[in-house]
Design a protein that fits this description.
alpha+beta; GTP Cyclohydrolase I, domain 2; 5-stranded mixed β-sheet
């Protein structure tokens, strides 16, 4: 199994516990690790035999704009499942980072990791 890593993808979504939080769109950062067999694309050197990174990023942004969840954990799970199915991945690992509440909680970063 081979791996592609796409890091620091900026995405806008609505995540929050309160109604006020959910109404405020926020920018989050997503890191993806996509696992699939590179053999076909390695032999053909043709993008149609692999995964087009720009399509992954576009799909991630499109789906994220439609998702409204209360927690980063629920958002991360939904994104992981959607991407795994859409791009026929053997496995996916992702990390989602937000800085929305960092000042309130006096910390540097909130990051959720999911593997599916």
């Amino acid at each position: 199994m081979d791996e592609i890593s796409l890091s620091g993808i900026r995405v806008n979504t609505n995540i929050g516990i309160t109604q006020e939080q959910q109404m405020l769109e926020q920018e989050i950062y997503v890191d993806l690790h996509l696992y699939y067999d590179f053999e076909k694309i390695q032999n053909s050197d043709d993008l149609k035999d692999g995964i087009d990174y720009s399509q992954v990023i576009s799909y991630l942004r499109e789906v994220s704009g439609d998702i409204q969840t209360h927690t980063l954990e629920a958002y991360s799970n939904q994104i992981a499942q959607d991407l795994k199915k859409k791009f026929k991945l053997e496995k996916i690992k992702l990390a989602v980072e937000t800085s929305r509440f960092n000042d309130d909680l006096d910390l540097d970063e909130i990051k959720v990791y999911i593997t599916r």
